[in-house]
Design a protein that fits this description.
CATH topology of one domain: Rossmann fold
Strand order of the largest sheet: 2-1-10-9-11-12-13-14
CATH architecture of one domain: 3-Layer(aba) Sandwich
Low-confidence stretches: 180-186, 552-558, 1027-1038
Pfam families: AMP-binding (PF00501), AMP-binding_C_3 (PF23562), NAD_binding_4 (PF07993), PP-binding (PF00550)
GO molecular function: phosphopantetheine binding
Radius of gyration: 32 Å
Mean pLDDT: 85
Strand content: 15-25%
Largest sheet: 8 strands, mixed
Shape: globular
Protein name: Nonribosomal peptide synthetase
Keywords: NADP, Phosphopantetheine, Phosphoprotein
Helix content: 25-40%
C-alpha cells in the first residue's frame, strides 16, 4: 500500500492516522463538522461543495434552482436553517442541555441544511430511514428521549400513529428566508453537540433498530485532509440516512465536492443514474471522477447500455455495504474499471479498502490493511478463517466489546494465498444456523420471541447447525416450574410463530428440550447480551444429541399398541410435527407436509415403533406412500414380518396417469379459439425458479416486451415482488426496482400473488382484470422440482396447468408449457421425435416425470378441443427442457444432483470417474433464450425448407420442441481434468465410481452432521454400485437417449448455435460449488 498514492476516497481511518503522524502540525484536522464548514467557507468560499443531480424527467420537468452549493452557501444557509428552526426549538444552554431531534426526510439539500442547522443550535440529529415502520420510530425516539421530529411532506404520513408527547413539524423552506450575505447571519453561541448524528441498525436480528452514535471526532476529526486544489468530485448513489454522510464528509475535509442521486426526484434505475451523472458533469466545472455505490447499483449499470462506459470514465468506482457478486466485479475489472471494495462500519468507521495498483493488481475483492497490530488484527478461527478485530489504537470506535478496549467485529475473512496483508470477506461469525440441506435462518428473532412469550423462561437457545431440522433448549427461570408446565406455556406461541416462519425454520414440539434451573450456571453471553452460541452448544451437546434420538410425546404405549391404534399414533406424530391435523386419505404433500416434516415424522416412527429393529425405513417413505392410510398399511406389514407392499407400483401408477390426464382434459362450455394473439405482454410463472428467473431477465431487457406479469405464491404483491427480486439477485442478475404500492401497475414487471390450482388462479378482482385485459403470451415454467414425490402429489401442478390454459383460451393468448425430456425419456424410439406421446410408460418412473407427461396430454387435448377447426394457430405449445447447468457466472442450483456430486470432493477428497458419461448440459441462459424464441415465432426462425401446405392433421398437431444440448462433448472425464488443473487450493483424487460410493458412504456415516449429498446416496449406490439398502443388484449405466431437434433448431437460433460446454464455464461452476455448498 505504501507505493500507491492515497486519495480522500480510499484513505481509511488507520491510514489517516499514520499520515497525520507523519505530517505533524502541517496537516491539522477540524475537530467538528461546523468547524470544517467554517474553515472551508473561509479558505474556499466559492468552491463547489454539494449538489443533487435533479435532472429533468417525466415525474418532474423542472430542475433545482440551485443545483450546486458552495462552502460559503453551506455556511450561510446552515445559519439560516438554525435561525428558522429556532422558532420551533429552544436553543441548548445550561438549563436546556444538548439533546436529540429526529429527522425523517428524503436525501436532499433540505436534509443537509436541517442537520447543520440543528448542530448550530446544539442538537444532535437522529437520522430516521424512511423504510422504518412507526413502532421502530417510536422505539428509537424513546431510547434517545427524542421530543421533536422534523419531517418532510412525503413522509409525514409515517408519523400519523406515533404516540406520546412528540412534537412533529415540517421541514421549513430555508431558501425563502436566506440572507444575501454571510455576515448577516450570526454564528450561534451554543455548545457543539458531541454526537454529530445518530444512525441506526436495521433491526433484522433483534426485531427493533438500535441507535448508533457518530461523534464529531469520528465523522470529522479522524478524517484525512488532502488540501491540494482540483480534487475530483464524488458521485454517490447512497442516501444520506443510509451512509451517505461519510462520503460527504470525506470529500469536504479535502475541499472537494460531492454529488448525490436525487432521491424522490426519480426512481433509481440504471438509465436514471446515467442521466444524473451526465447532469452533474454538465452543471459543475469540477469533474465527478469518484463513484460510490452498493452492489445492486453496479449490477444495474453493468447491464445498462452505456453503463460500463460511464464507469470506465471514473478514476475510481467504490463498492461497499454488501458483497458484490464475484462475476460482476470480475466483469467490471476486466472492462478496465478501477473497482475498489471499501469496508466500514458504524461502530469503527472506514476500516479497509482494496485500493491498489489497478493496472497490475486485479484482486479487487481482497481488502488491504496496514501491517500495524496496534490498529487492526485478524484472529484465527475455524476452517482457515480469521476474525477482524479493531484494536485499542484504532482511531475511532463507538463501542468496545473486550476488556482491553478492542472491538471484535464478528466479520470473518480468508487471507490471500500469496499476497501479505490482503483479506477477502467470507461471512459473519455470529449470523445464521445452516441446516444439513444448506438452508439457513437467523435464530435470534425467534429466540427473543419465545423468551418474551412467558415469564417461566430465563433463556432460549435454538440449535440445528448441520442437522436436518432445528430444536430449542428452554431454560427455566424457576425450579418450581415443571417441564410439562413450561412446554404447555410456550407451545401455543411457537405454533403461531411457525406459521409466520420459513418452513425450514419450524420447531416441533418433540424438539423442545427443557433445561432445569437447579444447579445450572447462566449461559455465557457477549457484551451485547447475546448468547455465545458455540460455547452453549458445546456445553449442551448431550441434550441436543438426545433430542434427535428422542421419543414423541404421545400418551400411547407403543410397545403394546394394536394395529387398530396404529393410525391414531401416526396421525399424532404428524400433529406434533406440524402443529395441526392432517387428513389420513389425502396426499400429504398437497396438505403442506414438506421434506423437513417428513424427516421428523420418519424419525419418530423409527424411534417409537422400531427401536430395537434392524429394519430402517427408506429415506423417502412418507412421500412414497403418499397418504397416512398407505403409510400405516406399510408399517403394519413390517410389524408382521412381511415384505412391505407398495400400493403405488407399476400398473396402478399408469392407471393414475391416464385418469389424471382424462380428468383435466375436459374443456366443456368454452368457446373455440379462431386466432391466437401475438402481443407485447407476457404472463410468466416460475419467475423465482432457475429457468424462470433467467427468462424474466431476458424479458426485462427486451424492448419489444411492454409488460410482464409474474404469478407466484405469496402473501401480498410486495412479498411476491421481493421474492422475485431476490431470486434475480441471487443468480447474479439485477433485481427489480424498489417496490411502490402506489405504482404497482405502472412498472414493466408486475408480481402478483396467486394460487394456480384455484379455478380463478387465486387472483384478486383487480389483478385478474389487469391480466385478462393485457395477457398475450403465457409461459408456464412453475413446477414442484421434487424427485421424491409420487404422481398424486403433483395434482395441484396439473390443475394449475389446466387453469392457465383456460386463461389462454379466454384471452386468446398463446400458452407455452415448459415440460421436461423426462416425460418421454423411457421411449424406445431413436431418436425421440418432437411429438406427443400417448403411452404413459414413455415417462420415467418418477412422479415428477409422470406429472409432466400428464400435463402434456392436457395441453394436447386443449389444442384439439379449443382451437377452431380452420385455424392455423396453436393454442398450446410444449417445450421439453433437458438437463440445464450453470449460468455464465457459474451459478447453479445447490439442490441439484450434479452440483451435490461435485461438492462431495470436500467430504471425501475425491470424485468419481464416469467414463461413458457425456456432459451435454445446456447453459440456463441459452435455454431461456430458446424458450422466448419459440414463444415469439419469426424472431429467430431459420429460412423455410419446404413449400408444401399443412395437412388438416398437421394443423391440429401440438407443436413440441426439445430444448437441450445436442453435443456429445465434453466427457465427464474431460470435465474432471479441467477443474482439477484449475484447483490448486483444493486438490482431489479421481477414482472409480464404485470406490467413490464406498468412500462417500463411509465418510457420511462418520459425520455428526448431515451433508446435503446424503439424500442422493441411495440413488448413486444404485447407479454406480448396483446396491440399495444393502441389497445387491445388477445394473448398467443406461446410454442417454437421442432427441430429434429438427423443429427446435428451425425455431431457435440459441439451439442452432449452442456450443459444447467449455473449460471456463465448468471452472466457474466448480468454484461456485465450493463457495456455496458446505463441506
Amino acid at each position: 500500500m505504501a507505493t500507491v498514492n492515497q486519495t480522500y476516497f480510499t484513505c481509511t481511518l488507520g491510514e489517516a492516522a499514520r499520515l497525520k503522524c507523519q505530517a505533524g502540525d502541517s496537516m491539522p484536522s477540524c475537530q467538528t463538522v461546523m468547524e470544517l464548514i467554517v474553515q472551508q467557507a473561509w479558505d474556499n468560499p466559492q468552491s463547489p461543495a454539494l449538489g443533487f443531480a435533479t435532472f429533468k424527467n417525466k415525474a418532474s420537468m423542472t430542475e433545482s434552482p440551485h443545483p450546486v452549493l458552495s462552502f460559503q452557501d453551506l455556511f450561510r444557509l446552515s445559519g439560516c436553517a438554525a435561525q428558522t428552526l429556532s422558532d420551533h426549538l429552544v436553543p441548548t444552554n445550561k438549563t436546556n442541555p444538548a439533546t436529540t431531534v429526529g429527522l425523517l426526510c428524503t436525501s436532499s439539500v433540505d436534509f443537509v441544511l436541517t442537520w447543520l442547522g440543528l448542530m448550530r443550535l446544539g442538537y444532535s440529529a437522529l437520522l430516521l430511514a424512511p423504510q422504518l415502520e412507526p413502532p421502530a420510530i417510536q422505539h428509537l425516539c424513546k431510547t434517545l428521549q427524542v421530543n421533536d421530529i422534523i419531517v418532510d411532506e412525503i413522509h409525514h404520513h409515517k408519523l400519523d400513529n406515533i404516540r406520546g408527547d412528540i412534537n412533529i413539524f415540517r421541514v421549513p423552506r430555508y431558501q425563502d428566508h436566506a440572507p444575501s450575505a454571510v455576515s448577516t447571519v450570526p454564528r450561534p453561541s451554543c455548545k457543539v453537540p458531541e454526537v454529530a448524528y445518530y444512525c441506526h441498525t436495521s433491526g433484522t436480528s433483534s426485531g427493533l433498530p438500535k441507535p448508533i452514535p457518530q461523534t464529531q471526532f469520528g465523522v470529522a476529526g479522524a478524517l484525512p485532509r488532502f488540501p491540494k486544489d482540483g480534487q475530483p468530485a464524488t458521485f454517490s448513489t447512497t442516501p444520506l440516512y443510509h451512509g451517505g454522510f461519510p462520503d460527504c464528509l470525506r470529500a469536504w475535509t479535502s475541499g472537494a465536492m460531492i454529488w448525490f442521486f436525487p432521491e424522490g426526484h426519480a426512481p433509481i434505475t440504471g438509465a436514471n443514474i446515467l442521466k444524473a451523472i451526465t447532469y452533474a458533469r454538465a452543471k459543475s466545472s469540477v469533474p465527478a471522477k469518484y463513484f460510490s455505490s452498493v452492489p445492486y447499483i453496479l449490477q444495474m449499470l453493468a447491464e445498462e447500455d452505456g453503463g460500463i462506459q460511464v464507469l470506465q470514465s471514473m478514476d475510481l468506482v467504490g463498492v461497499g455495504g454488501a458483497a458484490l457478486p464475484p462475476a460482476v466485479g470480475d466483469k467490471l475489472v476486466n472492462s478496465g474499471i478501477n473497482l475498489v471494495s471499501r469496508m466500514g462500519s458504524a461502530e469503527c468507521g472506514f476500516l479497509m479498502s482494496s485500493h491498489r495498483d489497478y493496472e497490475k493488481d486485479k484482486d479487487w475483492q481482497y481488502l488491504r490493511v496496514l501491517n500495524d497490530l496496534k490498529l487492526l488484527s485478524f484472529e484465527p478461527q475455524e476452517n482457515g478463517l480469521s476474525e477482524l478485530v479493531a484494536k485499542p489504537g484504532w482511531p475511532f470506535k463507538v463501542k468496545t466489546n473486550r476488556d482491553d478496549g478492542s472491538y471484535a467485529t464478528s466479520d470473518l475473512f480468508e487471507p490471500h494465498p500469496s499476497k501479505p496483508n490482503a483479506w477477502r470477506y467470507h461471512s459473519r461469525a455470529d449470523a445464521q444456523i445452516t441446516l444439513a440441506n444448506g438452508k439457513k435462518f437467523d435464530p435470534s428473532p425467534m429466540e427473543g420471541s419465545i423468551l418474551a412469550s412467558t415469564t417461566l423462561l430465563q433463556d432460549v437457545l435454538i440449535f440445528g447447525s448441520g442437522k436436518d431440522y432445528s430444536g430449542a433448549l428452554l431454560f427455566l427461570s424457576s425450579s418450581e416450574t415443571s417441564e410439562t408446565e413450561l412446554i404447555d406455556a410456550v407451545w401455543p406461541h411457537i405454533q403461531h410463530m411457525n406459521t409466520e416462519s420459513q418452513g425450514h425454520a419450524r420447531i416441533t414440539k418433540t424438539m423442545l428440550v427443557v433445561i432445569p434451573k437447579q444447579g445450572e450456571k447462566p449461559l455465557e453471553k457477549s457484551s451485547k447480551g447475546t448468547i455465545l452460541r458455540r460455547q452453549a452448544e458445546e456445553r449442551y451437546t448431550h441434550e441436543i444429541e438426545s433430542a434427535y434420538q428422542g421419543k414423541g410425546s404421545s400418551g400411547l404405549d407403543f410397545k403394546q399398541i394394536s394395529d387398530e391404534e396404529l393410525q391414531t399414533a401416526v396421525l399424532d406424530f404428524f400433529s406434533q410435527v406440524l402443529g395441526r391435523a392432517v387428513e389420513p386419505d389425502q396426499d400429504l404433500y398437497r396438505q403442506g407436509v414438506d421434506s423437513i416434516a417428513c424427516i421428523q415424522v420418519r424419525k419418530l416412527i423409527e424411534t417409537n415403533f422400531l427401536p430395537q429393529s434392524t429394519v430402517r425405513l427408506p429415506m423417502n417413505i412418507i412421500y412414497d406412500q403418499g397418504t397416512v392410510t398407505a403409510l400405516v398399511e406399510y408399517l403394519r406389514r413390517i410389524r408382521k414380518g412381511e415384505t412391505p407392499w407398495d400400493g403405488h407400483e407399476g400398473d396402478d401408477q399408469l392407471t393414475s396417469m391416464r385418469q389424471l390426464a382424462q380428468n383435466y382434459s375436459t374443456f366443456g362450455g368454452m368457446k373455440p379459439v379462431s386466432q391466437v394473439k401475438q402481443g407485447d405482454v407476457v404472463v410468466l410463472t416460475g419467475a423465482t425458479g432457475f429457468l424462470g428467473s433467467h427468462i424474466l431477465h431476458l424479458l426485462q431487457n427486451d424492448p419489444k416486451i411492454r409488460k410482464v406479469f409474474c404469478l407466484l405464491r405469496a402473501e401480498s404483491s410486495r412479498a411476491a415482488y421481493e421474492r422475485v427480486s431476490k431470486a434475480l439477485i441471487q443468480r447474479n442478475m439485477p433485481g427489480l426496482e424498489q417496490f411502490n404500492d402506489a405504482e404497482w401497475d405502472q412498472r414493466k414487471v408486475i408480481c402478483l400473488p396467486c394460487d394456480l390450482s384455484s379455478d380463478d388462479l387465486g387472483l384478486s378482482g383487480e389483478h385478474r382484470r389487469h391480466v385478462f385485459n393485457e395477457g398475450a403470451t403465457i409461459i408456464h415454467s412453475a413446477w414442484a422440482v421434487n424427485f421424491s414425490l409420487r404422481l398424486n402429489s403433483f395434482e395441484d401442478q396439473i390443475a394449475g396447468t389446466r387453469n392457465l390454459i383456460n386463461l389462454a383460451a379466454e384471452t386468446r393468448s398463446r400458452f407455452i408449457f415448459a415440460s421436461s425430456t423426462a416425460a418421454v425419456i423411457s421411449s424406445p424410439s431413436t431418436p425421440i421425435p418432437e411429438k406427443i406421446y400417448e403411452d404413459p410408460t414413455d415417462a420415467s418412473p418418477m412422479g415428477y416425470s409422470q406429472s409432466k407427461w400428464v400435463a402434456e396430454q392436457v395441453c394436447d387435448a386443449a389444442n384439439k378441443h379449443l382451437m377452431d377447426a380452420n385455424s392455423t394457430d396453436h393454442l398450446t405449445t410444449i417445450i421439453r427442457i433437458g438437463q440445464l447447468c450453470s449460468n455464465d457466472a457459474g451459478i447453479w442450483n445447490a439442490s441439484e444432483a450434479y452440483p451435490l456430486l461435485l461438492s462431495t470432493a470436500k467430504v471425501v477428497g475425491c470424485l468419481p470417474d464416469i467414463p461413458d458419461e457425456v456432459v451435454n448440459w445446456l447453459p440456463v441462459e441459452a435455454a431461456a433464450q430458446s424458450v422466448l424464441e419459440i414463444a415469439f415465432p419469426n424472431r429467430a426462425k431459420a429460412p423455410e425448407t419446404t413449400n408444401g401446405k399443412e395437412t388438416p392433421e398437421e394443423r391440429t398437431r401440438t407443436s413440441v420442441y426439445h430444448v437441450l444440448n445436442p453435443h456429445v462433448t465434453p466427457t465427464w472425464s474431460q470435465m474432471l481434468q479441467w477443474i482439477s488443473k484449475n484447483n490448486e487450493e483444493r486438490p482431489f483424487e479421481i477414482i472409480s465410481a464404485r470406490d467413490w460410493v464406498r468412500r462417500l458412504e463411509d465418510a457420511l456415516g462418520k459425520r455428526k452432521d448431515n451433508h446435503p449429498s446424503q439424500a442422493l446416496l441411495e440413488m448413486w449406490k444404485e447407479r454406480f454400485y448396483g446396491e440399495v439398502d444393502g441389497e445387491s443388484r445388477a445394473t448398467d449405466v443406461a446410454q442417454l437417449p437421442v432427441f430429434d431437434l429438427t423443429e427446435t433448431q428451425h425455431a431457435s437460433s440459441a439451439i442452432r448455435n449452442v456450443q459444447p460446454l467449455d473449460c471456463e464455464r465448468m471452472v466457474k461452476t466448480w468454484r461456485w460449488v465450493n463457495d456455496t455448498i458446505s463441506g
